[in-house]
Design a protein that fits this description.
The complex is a heterodimer. Chain A has helices at residues 7-39, 57-84, 91-97, 219-230, and strands spanning 113-119, 122-127, 132-135, 140-141, 143-147, 149-157, 162-166, 171-175, 181-187, 191-199, 211-217, 238-239. Chain A is an alpha+beta fold. The radius of gyration of chain A is 25 Å and the shape is elongated. Chain B is mainly alpha-helical. Chain B has one domain: Cytochrome C Oxidase, Chain A (Up-down Bundle), CATH 1.20.210. Chain B contains 17 helices and no strands. In chain B, helix 6 packs parallel to helix 10 (278-292) and helix 9 crosses helix 14 (377-407). The chains are: A alpha+beta, B mainly alpha. Chains A and B meet through helix 1, helix 2, strand 8, strand 9 and strand 10 of A and helix 3, helix 10, helix 11, helix 12 and helix 13 of B.
Chain lengths: 248, 534
């Protein structure tokens, strides 16, 4: 497999730690509340005041220490994932600082930087090295075409803040006007994801319709696609969401 | 104890009530105003949920939907939750610390008037051609500037938020000064009831955080209405977010703490025990408040403009102090003799439902997890468990607990139980599906989604849940009106309370106390009872 960046796996690794822990704590506390509410209900006719223990400092201090350990463990795993997480780095350092399972012997990924430009309410993808551009119009959404492997992105906006969100990669980054946001994404499998990309930051009237497709191609197919686009082949556009919730 | 015979109070005129500087009148009117806005914000939410029940647009246009979610969020934060927190504090803190009046009562009253003005301005937008504010309750620049969202409605919204912010600062200052200056003899800081402590940390945060809101909005107003392009630089939008979230995160704790305090009082009273772990609780409240001023950046993890590790660390650390509060509430129930009154049901409901918000809060405090769920329905689910499961359930615990003190009448327990047992499934059905939708990539602030996404079932469930919530709140309204018109007399101390407000009449006289019992702990009335029985 080409590339070193796998945002979906970084997410899943942490999810697998945080989520079971959260569900476990939820179940324990809910059960405890239920037991307390049932077990220590006042019986009818019992007019005695209950025993007034109002402090157990040692017990409570040990409990606080336990909580601190849990917090430390969570922060440790979050930080170590963030240390591995190469999405924020330019691809050059990503390839050295990334995961060890990358196999440099495979066909190298085409060296691509894609400029993502958000504009109310469309996406524009510029491939500067390739001289290619993809952009939606009012009624159609564009397709982000990428090769399998790591791809560098620079995101900006021509007007308000947008956010470049690809749910299946478990990743989003904001695109600001007058600023570039750099990140690197790894695409693992070839395939087509219809309307999978979307704007996550509220940007006004047609925010809900500001989407894009993602097409992941094998490196060779990507080179052929880029050459064809340069020679004037049409870009791939699909209908935007309409007011009935359909894409036709 | 001596009985003081007093002539029956004459019914004050409307104008008399609106201009009274008695902290109880100001608190009550602020609370009533907040409750009215809660109802309006809730109705807006039902329109939004109805629109979202199925893909496509059926009920409102995209344009209207943007106004609705903006005004829903703005109403709930600026006009309901924050004023309600201040209302509880203004009414109850002087009573709990044995004060006869608050410091700066006219400023507190001004706060109420500013709040009413803020509400009028925000809703006037709906009458204008361009509609009401529609840049979200956060109004990120540049979407909120005069190019991004032109129109008088958005101008009015901006001024409205400035007024609401000033209202909060004024009322918080009164509460803070009252706690510092007006505590009864021997009411030391460490003998203040837990509710008063929770109100204290809340107003401390208001004083620290709200000026950032007023500043951000004032600059935004200047940006919108003059040629001074305040936020136009490359870092302008980031600066705006820093200012906004420096207010915007503490505010969720500001509207949480007083209700946590209310829950603590309800649990202690209904358990027949002093609140457990008082020193830990006080310390945790203070540390919590300090930490909460240092977590705002976790709203900006996806901007690539801040140090994510720092904010992940401070945010995760909050689980330690929040855990102490659970331990102390549950420790109070341990070996207690619990009377399962409605206030207790809501207190337990608060602990159970806020927990979902708290645990998912730890989840989104981890940046790599937030990169996916940020700005999706996962976040909407998360903060509704903190604000609905937390703030609203805590508020109801407080209302059922203190209604007899404030009005002299009891709420109906049967209707109270019906209210509770509908509200819990309603809150679960409405907000649990949001976690699944958000995790599947459904973004926030959209009126329309693709029929091909498979999101209709969960959205319909959520919409049905919101109707269940509405039915439950209708029962509460009936209960409220019936009791106000002729509920049974409550007497001074219907629950065998532990704190000073239960040592005066219901409702308390203008000067609050004819006679103050001695204060030797944070539960002075428990001390008296023990003294009498021994």
């Amino acid at each position: 497999m080409n590339g070193t960046v796998d945002t979906a796996r970084d997410y899943q690794d942490l999810f697998d730690l945080y989520w079971p822990l959260a569900v476990g704590v939820l179940v324990i506390i809910w059960l405890a509340l239920l037991v307390l509410a049932v077990r220590f209900r006042r019986r009818d006719g019992d007019d005695e005041w209950p025993e007034q223990t109002s402090e157990r400092p040692r017990l409570e201090a040990s409990y606080v220490a336990l909580l601190a350990v849990i917090a430390a463990v969570l922060v440790f795993f979050t930080f170590s994932t963030m240390g591995r997480l190469t999405a924020d780095l330019p691809a050059e350092s990503a390839s050295t600082g990334g995961r060890s399972d990358a196999d440099p012997a495979k066909t190298p990924t085409p060296d691509v930087t894609i400029d993502v430009v958000g504009a109310r309410w469309n996406w524009r993808f510029r491939y500067r090295e390739l001289g290619v551009e993809q952009a939606g119009d009012g009624r159609s959404i564009p397709t982000l075409v990428v090769p399998v492997g790591d791809v560098r992105f620079r995101a900006t906006s021509v007007d308000v803040i947008h956010s470049f969100f690809v749910p299946y990669l478990r990743f989003k980054r904001d695109a600001f006007p007058k600023r570039w946001t750099n990140f690197t994404l790894g695409f693992r499998e070839p395939g087509f994801h219809r309307a999978e990309g979307r704007c996550a930051e509220f940007c006004g009237l047609r925010h809900a319709y500001m989407q894009f497709n993602v097409r992941v191609l094998e490196p060779e197919a990507f080179r052929r696609w880029a050459a064809a686009r340069r020679d004037g082949a049409p870009q791939e556009l699909t209908p935007a969401l309409d007011r009935d919730g359909r894409r036709r | 104890m001596t009985t003081v015979v007093r002539p029956p109070p004459s019914r004050p005129s409307v104008m008399g009530r609106l201009t009274s500087t008695d902290h109880k009148h100001v608190g009550l009117l602020t609370g009533a105003t907040a409750l009215a806005f809660f109802a309006i914000g809730g109705l807006i939410a039902m329109v939004m949920r109805t629109e979202l029940a199925q893909p496509g647009l059926q009920v409102v246009s995209d344009e209207t939907y943007n106004q609705l979610f903006t005004i829903h969020g703005s109403t709930m934060f600026y006009l309901f939750a924050s004023p309600m927190a201040m209302a509880f504090a203004l009414y109850l803190v002087p009573l709990q610390i044995g004060a006869s009046q608050i410091v700066w009562p006219r400023l507190a009253l001004l706060g109420l008037w500013l709040l009413l003005g803020a509400g009028v301005l925000m809703y006037t937008g709906f009458l204008l051609p361009g509609g009401a504010g529609k840049a979200g309750w956060f109004a990120f620049d540049p979407l909120s500037d005069d190019v991004g969202t032109p129109g008088t409605g958005q101008d009015l919204w901006t001024v409205s938020v400035i007024l609401a912010g000033l209202a909060g600062i004024l009322q918080a200052a009164c509460v803070l000064a009252t706690i510092v200056r007006r505590r009864a003899p021997r009411m030391t800081m460490l003998r203040m009831p837990v509710f008063s402590w929770s109100a204290l940390v809340s107003v401390l945060m208001v004083i620290t955080a709200y000026p950032a809101l007023v500043l951000a909005m004032t600059l935004l107003y200047i940006d919108r209405t003059t040629s001074a392009a305040v936020y136009d630089g490359a870092m302008g939008p980031i600066v705006y977010q820093h200012l906004f979230w420096f207010f915007g995160h503490p505010v969720v704790y500001i509207v949480f703490f007083p209700f946590l305090g209310a829950v603590a009082e309800a649990i202690a009273t209904n358990s027949g025990k002093r609140f457990f772990g008082y020193p830990f609780m006080v310390a945790s409240l203070l540390i919590f408040a300090a930490l909460s001023m240092a977590v705002w950046g976790h709203h900006m993890f996806t901007t690539s403009a801040i140090e994510n590790r720092y904010f992940a660390l401070t945010t995760t650390a909050i689980l330690v102090v929040a855990g102490i509060e659970y331990f102390d509430c549950m420790g109070t129930m341990w070996r207690a003799k619990i009377r399962m009154r409605t206030s207790m049901l809501f207190a337990i409901g608060f602990l159970a439902l806020f927990l979902i918000g708290g645990l998912t809060g730890i989840f989104v405090a981890s940046p790599p997890l937030d990169y996916h769920v940020h700005d999706t329905y996962f976040i909407v689910g998360h903060f509704h468990y903190t604000l609905f499961g937390g703030t609203v359930f805590g508020m109801f615990a407080g209302i059922y607990h203190w209604f007899p003190k404030v009005t002299g009448r009891l709420l109906d327990e049967r209707l109270g139980r019906a209210h509770f047992w509908l509200l819990v499934p309603g809150a679960l059905l409405t907000f649990i599906p949001m976690f699944l939708l958000g995790h599947d990539g459904m973004t926030r602030r959209i009126a329309n989604y693709g029929a091909d996404r498979g999101w209709q079932g969960l959205n319909t469930m959520s919409t049905i849940g919101s109707y269940v919530i509405a039915a439950s709140l209708l029962i509460f309204l009936v209960n409220l009106v019936r009791s106000l018109r002729g509920g049974p007399r409550a007497g001074d101390d219907p629950w065998e309370g532990q704190t000073l407000e239960w040592a005066t009449t219901s409702p308390p006289p203008p000067h609050n106390f004819d006679e103050l019992p001695p204060v030797r702990s944070y539960a002075p009335l428990m001390d008296l009872r023990e003294e009498r029985s021994s």
